[in-house]
Structures are given as structure tokens and as C-alpha cells.
Design goal:
The chain is 82% helix and 3% strand. With 128 residues, it is mainly alpha-helical. Helix 2 (37-58) runs antiparallel to helix 4 (65-83) and helix 4 (65-83) runs antiparallel to helix 5 (87-126).
Length: 128
């Protein structure tokens, strides 16, 4: 830092400010990449939990039981791994949980859509 000639204020050279800003950004990214517990939960486990919950609300336990159960088991493993500070394992399990949660949602939509199509076809045949 440099004090201006009048001595009334500090002047931070432009390059020094950019370097300080870069250092802050690098520190934040490094802490996020290191997998500290709050970051693992907020970035990986919580979104996976939302996906699995949405699958459950859509009826996946009944209509896509394999995909739904697989997602729930991996979500639980993600939580256990995070609690044991095995953050890379937690991330991996959370990704699998989210993937299978989305598969469960998709499969449920397919099954319900096929059932709706069947019902509409049956109704059309009865009305003839």
C-alpha cells in the first residue's frame, strides 16, 4: 500500500487489488474443492435428497421400486460417509443417488403415462 503525498488516504495500486481479489477467489474455491462438510452437504447431498424426495412424492416407491430403492440406499450412504468425514465417498454416493432418483422419476412418469393412455383407450372403446 502506498500513502498519497498529502498523507490523507491509502492508495492501493490497481495490480495489488487484483492480486488480493484473486487470492480471495482461490481460497474460496480451494476450500470448496477440498470437500469440507458444509460444502459437501450443500453442493451434493442436499440436492440429491431433494431429487429422491421428489421421486417419492411422484410415486416412485410403487411405480419404480428398483430405481427408487437404489437412490435411497445411496443417499443414506452419502449421509453416513459425510458424517464419517469420507467426503469423496459422500460425493460419489450422492451423485449416484441423484442419478437414480431422476431415473425413478422418469420411470414413474412413463408408467403413469402408459396407464393413463390405456385408460383413455379403454374409455374410447366403451363410448363406441
Amino acid at each position: 500500500m502506498i500513502v498519497d503525498p498529502a498523507g490523507s488516504r491509502l492508495v492501493i495500486p490497481r495490480g495489488m487489488f487484483a492480486a488480493l481479489r484473486l487470492a480471495v477467489v482461490v481460497t474460496v474455491l480451494a476450500s470448496a474443492a477440498s470437500g469440507c462438510a458444509p460444502t459437501v452437504y450443500s453442493v451434493h447431498v442436499l440436492p440429491a435428497a431433494r431429487v429422491v424426495e421428489e421421486a417419492e412424492l411422484a410415486g416412485a416407491a410403487e411405480h419404480a421400486p428398483y430405481e427408487y430403492h437404489f437412490a435411497r440406499v445411496h443417499l443414506e450412504q452419502a449421509r453416513v460417509a459425510a458424517a464419517e468425514s469420507a467426503y469423496q465417498d459422500a460425493i460419489r454416493y450422492a451423485k449416484v443417488a441423484a442419478e437414480h432418483g431422476r431415473l425413478a422419476q422418469r420411470r414413474t412418469r412413463e408408467v403413469l403415462g402408459a396407464a393413463r393412455d390405456r385408460d383413455e383407450r379403454d374409455d374410447d372403446e366403451e363410448n363406441r
